Amino acid sequence: MGKLKVGILISGRGSNMQALIDSCRSPDAPAEIALVLSNEPTAAGLRRAAEAGIPTRVVHHRDFADRAAFDAALHRALVGAGVEFVCLAGFMRLLTNDFVERWRDRMINIHPSLLPAFPGLNTHARALAAGVRFTGCTVHFVRSEMDTGPIIVQAAVPIRPEDNADSLAARVLEAEHRIYPYALRLVAEGRVTIIGERAIIAGAEAPGETLFNPVP
Ligand code: GRF
Hints:
The protein is α/β, with parallel strands linked by helices. The protein folds into two domains: 1-103, Formyl transferase, N-terminal domain (Rossmann fold); 108-216, Formyl transferase, N-terminal domain (Rossmann fold), CATH 3.40.50. It has six helices and ten strands, in the order βαβαβαβαβαββαβββ. It has helices at 15-23, 44-51, 67-80, 97-102, 123-130, 165-188; strands spanning 4-10, 31-38, 56-58, 85-88, 107-111, 134-141, 151-158, 192-195, 198-201, 211-212. The strands form two sheets. Strands 3-2-1-4-5-6-7-10 form an eight-stranded mixed beta sheet, sandwiched between helices.
């Protein structure tokens, strides 16, 4: 069977993109990165992708009259590159309903909190302000409502008394780099089924298969 052709959408530094690229380098990886696409021409991730020999594209949102036209261009670029599956990796544009439905169950995102807690921005500062003892990160299928959709993998990250938003973000990011490639692999191996808006992982008998608990 051929490898799943993946498109990664980014807007910035692209460290999760890099983790996905690195994991797809292994010969037994079930997925390959066919395209990295950024809406920001200056995104640092574009250079990292090019250095890794991955085709890159810029679709600049400012070149389009509205979100529908921008999303249509995104869609064309992805399909034109033979992309079958989309990974959002720090992509900072809200996607239209149409686009989300076109890629329904074929598009995943990484979010730096234990969803459904703390959707949206500034998750680490909000977790600290709320006084929660754990935060973490989530890989989930994308639905129209921001940061919702069936959860594939989560990692819990304990919050230390001395943490600030930056120190917490750094530890959560390490966990992100572990779970995003893992979640993509599960999907590309055909082990993930969505039943009633829950993602069920075939062969994941032990909770350790879909929950990562980094050591504090
Ligand atoms: C990550 O924290 C990710 O969870 C969030 O945006 C950030 C992107 O960072 N969606 P990077 O571009 O992958 O380094």
